[in-house]
User: Which sequence fits this backbone?
């Protein structure tokens, strides 16, 4: 391939030298050098053209360019003839270069495939394909190596470069017991990891599946342009034939002049610039998105995102980040401080998010003994020799306590020496970037923002008020969310649903654009969603819309620009005002400009 | 059934569009997408004779661009 590239470069340079010499030299040298320029750059095209005829591909671009350039020579316009061929080739090379560059930059972004896994079997290292790893296998990951499958660290500590998976630039410190995500690179330390899922079901497998299935969903704009290209060439070539024949035959005009006009038509008859610039734009847009950890499933999705009108968001895990904070303490028979102190002491060893929230809000001191976690219920312990039970309503039921009516979703009830001592109310925390993200969406004239939640009204109202969400529905069961979304979609406005992808696959699938946040949580989420936000941040949402709108704008610019120039030159050409030179510009120049413009899509900086 | 293939030596977007059109005209093919940027062909079909259909598809490629190839593993 490299050898071919060198040959082509050599041909084009030689041809260009001959062409320049030919233009400046007088008399017979002019003819010789220009003919040489044509031959060097065009012999290959001419051969392809003949081959094309035999394969029944009459109107391929090689054929059209060969006819146009030979025609120019026959009419005595040597410089034009050579120029058509030379610039056609240069344009073609440029196109190839641009396409390869975009492909490379995107595959570099998506270069997350681990190439090997090292299994530890009976103390022996054994290399194997990541796809052959089964759940429970023990893996060894050395510095510089990629994590082959999702797993948990058994031994060792290190830092992981997670940037390709989550878009997060900071390396993440990990140690024993921490989960590791496949596709991340181990920067330091040797890790002994137990595989928790197979390659296919690991983050990498899911992301690649997502990217690969993207090719199915072509944008409507792209389909429209290829359809147009299909009729464009025959139409232009047909007009060229009529232009060459009718005026001379019907009105006795000079053949030479009208054939020349027809030849300018042939030069502009290739739709390639148009056909390439649109998918190149979408591809660039998808690349820009994936740079920010946003995987978009295809051009069609990007197109819909650009027309987004309303956004429906799940509350828990989407607008809130899954952590909790104490919002109220309702003690019975003791003070708030006392209740918090006792609960914090009893809960201090628990990893549950609610326990962390309570420990974070009070500086507790005292003696704690016999701490016992009761999974699914809560914790029991002795604090300062008092028996303490902390847990949910089920724990109270188990202990034979009848609870007062509580209007709160997340609360912890407390028993001291077997007597009810009140409850602590907790609230999940709004994401720090939620407000700015929603504001940015509103600024992009997305008017309707709706919040859906299974949580109780008071918790929902709090979040809605903080984020200035006017429309929200609470206490919803999963099927209620489906029906709410159904009516939003039925309104006809382009609707996106944003959820964490854990339990909302049906809703994700139903929205025009299903957006799963926080990575490739489950197979169902990847299957059902159109956009996956790998990082755990809501700000990716307005960014995705911005990228989509910018991409559409560039694609539209290209269509209008390329078609406009071509049409203009066609009209001028038919009237005899535009010669071959202008036609060459309308073909190659427009290609180059459209491609350069399309490549801007890749370089989005918010 | 739906399968995805890699494609080689396809160097013109308009040719890709022509090939996609030709493949979709084949009787055995229910739906085919050829993505020029990702060089990926997705074929959906209910045919009994998948290999035969793939040969037809390769023919469609060769007709438009002789050097192009569908990689069948």
Assistant:
């Amino acid at each position: 391939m490299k050898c071919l590239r060198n040959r082509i470069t050599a041909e084009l340079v030689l041809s260009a030298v001959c062409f320049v010499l030919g233009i400046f030299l007088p008399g017979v040298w002019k003819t010789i050098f220009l003919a040489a320029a044509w031959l060097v750059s065009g012999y290959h095209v001419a051969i392809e053209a003949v081959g094309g005829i035999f394969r029944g591909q009459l109107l391929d671009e090689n054929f059209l360019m060969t006819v146009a350039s030979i025609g120019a020579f026959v009419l005595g316009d040597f410089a034009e003839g050579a120029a058509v061929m030379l610039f056609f080739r240069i344009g073609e090379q440029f196109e190839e270069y641009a396409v390869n560059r975009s492909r490379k930059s995107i595959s570099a972004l998506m270069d997350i495939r681990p190439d090997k896994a090292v299994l530890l079997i009976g103390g022996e290292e054994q290399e194997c394909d990541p796809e052959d790893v089964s759940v429970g296998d023990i893996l060894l990951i050395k510095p510089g190596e990629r994590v082959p499958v999702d797993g948990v660290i058994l031994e060792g500590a290190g830092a992981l470069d997670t940037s390709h998976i989550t878009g997060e630039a900071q390396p993440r410190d990990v140690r024993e017991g921490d989960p590791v995500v496949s596709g991340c690179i181990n920067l330091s330390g040797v890790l002994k990891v137990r595989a928790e899922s197979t390659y296919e079901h690991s983050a990498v497998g899911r992301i690649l599946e997502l990217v690969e299935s993207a090719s199915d969903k072509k944008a409507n704009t792209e389909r429209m342009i290829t359809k147009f290209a299909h009729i464009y060439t025959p139409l232009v070539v047909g007009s060229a034939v009529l232009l060459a024949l009718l005026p001379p035959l019907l009105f006795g005009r000079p053949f030479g002049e009208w054939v020349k006009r027809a030849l300018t038509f042939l030069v502009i008859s290739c739709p390639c610039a148009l056909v390439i610039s649109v998918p190149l734009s979408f591809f660039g847009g998808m690349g820009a998105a994936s740079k920010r950890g946003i995987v978009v499933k295809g051009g069609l999705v990007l197109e819909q995102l650009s027309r987004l009108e309303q956004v429906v968001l799940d509350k828990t895990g989407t607008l809130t980040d899954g952590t909790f904070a104490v919002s109220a303490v309702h003690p019975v028979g003791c003070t708030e401080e006392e209740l918090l102190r006792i609960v914090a002491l009893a809960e201090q060893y628990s990893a549950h998010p609610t326990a962390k929230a309570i420990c974070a809000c009070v500086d507790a001191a005292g003696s704690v003994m016999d701490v016992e976690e009761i999974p699914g219920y809560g914790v029991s312990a002795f604090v300062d020799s008092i028996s303490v039970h902390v847990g949910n309503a089920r724990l109270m039921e188990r202990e034979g306590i009848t609870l007062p009516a509580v209007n709160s979703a997340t609360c912890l009830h407390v028993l001291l020496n077997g007597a009810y001592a009140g409850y602590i109310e907790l609230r999940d925390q709004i994401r720090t970037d939620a407000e700015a993200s929603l504001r940015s969406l509103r600024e992009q004239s997305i008017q309707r923002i709706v919040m859906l939640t299974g949580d109780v009204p008071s918790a929902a109202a709090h979040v809605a008020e903080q984020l200035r969400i006017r429309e929200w529905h609470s206490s919803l069961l999963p099927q209620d969310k489906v029906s709410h979304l159904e009516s939003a979609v039925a309104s006809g406005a382009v609707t996106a649903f944003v959820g964490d992808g854990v339990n909302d696959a049906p809703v994700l699938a139903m929205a025009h654009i299903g957006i799963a946040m926080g990575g490739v949580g489950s197979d169902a989420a990847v299957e059902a969603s159109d956009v996956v936000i790998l990082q755990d941040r809501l700000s990716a949402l307005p960014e995705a819309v911005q990228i989509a709108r910018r991409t559409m704008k560039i694609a539209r610019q290209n269509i209008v620009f390329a078609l406009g120039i071509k049409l203009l030159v066609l009209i001028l050409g038919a009237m005899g005002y535009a010669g071959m030179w202008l036609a060459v510009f309308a073909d190659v120049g427009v290609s180059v400009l459209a491609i350069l413009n399309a490549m801007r899509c890749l370089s989005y900086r918010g | 059934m739906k399968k995805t293939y890699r494609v080689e030596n396809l160097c013109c977007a308009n040719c890709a569009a022509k090939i996609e059109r030709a493949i979709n005209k084949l009787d055995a093919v229910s739906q085919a997408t050829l993505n020029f940027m990702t060089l990926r062909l997705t074929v959906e079909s209910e045919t009994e004779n998948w290999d035969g259909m793939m040969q037809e598809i390769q023919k469609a490629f060769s007709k438009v661009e002789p050097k192009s190839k569908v990689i069948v593993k």
